[in-house]
Structure formats: structure tokens, C-alpha cells
Design a protein that fits this description.
Blueprint: E1 3-9, E2 13-18, E3 23-28, E4 31-34, E5 39-42, H1 46-63, E6 70-73, E7 78-82, E8 85-96, H2 99-105, E9 112-122, E10 131-132, H3 134-139, H4 145-168, E11 171-183, E12 186-189, E13 198-202, H5 212-215, H6 221-231
Antiparallel strand pairs: 1-2, 2-3, 3-7, 4-5, 6-7, 8-9, 8-11, 9-10, 11-12, 11-13
Helix pairs in contact: 1-6
Bound molecules: thymidine-5'-phosphate (TMP) and aspartic acid (ASP).
Length: 238
Amino acid sequence: MEKRKELYSGKAKSVFTTDDDNLMVLSFRDDTSAFDGKKVEQLARKGAVNNQFNAFIMEKLAAAGIPTHFVRRLSSNESLVKRLSMIPVECVVRNIAAGSLCRRLGVEEGLALNPPTFEMFLKNDALGDPMINEYHVRSFGWAEPGQIEQMKVLTFKVNDILKQLFLDGGMLLVDYKLEFGVADGEILLGDEFSPDGCRLWDAETREKMDKDRFRQGLGGVVEAYEQVGQRLGMTFEY
Ligand code: TMP
Ligand code: ASP
């Protein structure tokens, strides 16, 4: 497999073509962004930590029956993935109220949500990732009704798998965002799963161990991500 040219560079990852049209290289950078790209910093080791964290989680999800784009890890900060046609919709499940839900609905952070709730956001930084519903997705043709249903089912299935995985490591999975794409007519989980795109709290102290440390200027961002990985039994290489 030969890495060729950079196709796209996002806020934290770059995507490269390969000699196989169906495969791409995802390169995880140290760039860390929040507030739709308004706050950006380089955090040493973050790219390597997120790449290895994502590989670990994607393998767990695949083993539990979730179809994903992940093929294999290539190096400390790069992975090989299937090429997807991305659906520009972010699927969010929330087990505990935090972040934008608290701002929008005026509820206190930490409120348990029973059952967990599901939201969709349009992936568009210029618009600040506005919340959308299934009818928007259909009317604008971002996905077919069957695909929306599948994304929702898969996002909740990921919750069942990961809530328990993190709880076994003494952590609460507060909320998370997933992105999906299509390859050969099939919906696959794409993008990444890392502490950049979810909220994780220590189950006892409720200390934040995710990107809220960066958003809120709490410090120790990458150290917290490493701690999350270590609690799941991971060791990182740099
Ligand atoms: P929110 O509280 O800001 O709406 O975010 C909910 C969860 O989804 C949180 O874990 C962060 C994640 N998320 C992203 O990673 N990127 C995004 O663009 C959005 C909207 C949410
Ligand atoms: N919207 C996400 C966040 O605030 C990602 C980003 O804007 O970079 O964390």
C-alpha cells in the first residue's frame, strides 16, 4: 500500500489517497480545535494518542458487529480506512446532560437522561453545526430514510457497547458524536472515536477526561486522554 497525495485536510486529521482507489490513509495531527475551529492549539502526542485510541475502539466495535471504515493501524499516527462517501450529519447520543444540551434546554450538567437521547447536527463549521431533524436530512437529500434509521440504530448500538467498556474502566460515557458514510451501498461508521468527540467523566469524582479539558482551559488534555486509554488497558507508542 502506497500513500499518495493529500486529498483533504480537516481540523485535526488529514486524508490521503493510496494506490488503491477504495482505501485512504487517515493521518491524525496534534492540532486540537474547539468551538467550530475558533480555538486551535497544537498539543504534543495528541495525534498519536487519538490514532491509537481510535484503532482500539474501532476494533472493539467491529468485533461487536458494527460495520466500520477502519482497516488497520499503519503507524503511531496513521491508519488505513475504506474510502467513504460521507453523510454530512453528526449523530449524537447523550446519556448525561452536558454541553450544548444544557445551554439549549436550560438543564443542569450531570442530569441523567433516561432513556438516552439522540440528536443530529449538520456538519458545517460556518453555520456552527446547527441542530437538524430527520425531515431536514430527507428534504435536503443528505441521506435516505433507510440510511437515517440505520445511523440511529448503529449509534445506539455503539452506546450499549461503549457505555459498558468505559464503565469497566471506571468512566461514564456522557455523550459522543459519530459520523457515517457509504461504501458499496452500505452504511459504515467513519471518522474517529476518541476523547476529541465524546465526553468521559471519572465515575467516582466526575472529573472531565475529554476535550472539555481543552474547551474549558482545564489543562492536562493529552494526559487525560492517555489516562482514559490506560484504564482500558491500552499502551501508547510515540
Ligand atoms: P455538544 O454538547 O457540543 O452538542 O456535543 C455533544 C457531543 O458531541 C460532545 O461529546 C462533543 C461531540 N461533538 C463533536 O465532537 N463535534 C461536533 O461538531 C459536535 C456538534 C459535537
Ligand atoms: N464542534 C466541535 C467542538 O466544539 C469540533 C470543533 O469545532 O472543532 O469540539
